[in-house]
Design goal:
With 203 residues, this protein is of the alpha/beta class. Helices cover 33% and strands 26% of the residues. It binds 5-O-phosphono-beta-D-ribofuranosylamine. Pathway: Purine metabolism; IMP biosynthesis via de novo pathway; N(2)-formyl-N(1)-(5-phospho-D-ribosyl)glycinamide from N(1)-(5-phospho-D-ribosyl)glycinamide (10-formyl THF route): step 1/1.
């Protein structure tokens, strides 16, 4: 299966998926990595893997609609079976999410439906949560609101900072994202009637 990964930052999840592809743990290949800024560190990591990289700067567009229309064309030019959002810090238009419905995944650093949006680690600390975690979900029009496929939990310890939590969550991200991507590539995972279905079972 052909996978396109969208990033804005470090790209450690992108790299975890790429490594899993190379090792045969994901039945697919990352055919392109697209970033919305040239400074995204993950671009060099992708290039070092021999993956095609693209930068489509949102600053060159007047509106979200105009940017997403171009992004859609760029993604489609790689004819992906699956589009993976891995730290892509953009709110997507309904036009884009509908176009890729059922074939776009996101990873969000909270135990959804808790803490949609940004600053999730600090918000979990402020709330005094004893556990925190990460969710992989299908992308729908609602921000961080699509059906959850898999979550991993981490403990919150006394004295933890947001950075501590982020590091703990990141480890889990690198474990569960390749797993879910592989399920999709194997044809075991689908979005059906607005729900995530794995091996015929509603999740
Ligand atoms: C991750 O924490 C992910 O959950 C969030 O953005 C971050 C991306 O990290 N959506 P990286 O660029 O993959 O290292």
């Amino acid at each position: 299966k052909r996978i396109v990964v969208l990033i804005s930052g470090t790209g450690s999840n992108m790299l975890a998926i790429q490594e899993a592809c190379k090792q045969g743990r994901v039945a697919g290949q990352v055919v392109a990595v697209i970033a919305n800024k040239a400074s995204a560190k993950g671009l060099e990591k992708a290039a070092a893997q021999g993956i095609d990289t693209e930068v489509l700067s949102h600053q060159a567009f007047d509106s979200r609609e105009a940017y997403d229309a171009e992004l859609k064309v760029l993604i489609d030019s790689y004819q992906p079976d699956l589009v993976v959002l891995a730290g892509f810090m953009r709110i997507l238009t309904g036009d884009l999410t509908r176009h890729f419905e059922g074939r776009m995944l996101n990873i969000h650093p909270s135990l959804l439906p808790k803490y949609k949006g940004v600053n999730t680690h600090q918000r979990a600390l402020d709330a005094g949560d004893k556990e925190h975690g990460v969710s992989v979900h299908f992308v729908t029009e609602e921000l961080d609101g699509g059906p959850v496929i898999l979550q991993a939990k981490v403990p919150v310890f006394d004295g933890d900072t947001a950075d501590d939590l982020q590091a703990r969550v990141h480890e889990q991200e690198h474990r569960i994202y390749p797993l879910v991507v592989n399920w999709f590539c194997q044809g075991r995972l689908a979005l059906q009637g607005g729900r995530a279905v794995l091996d015929g079972q509603v999740l």
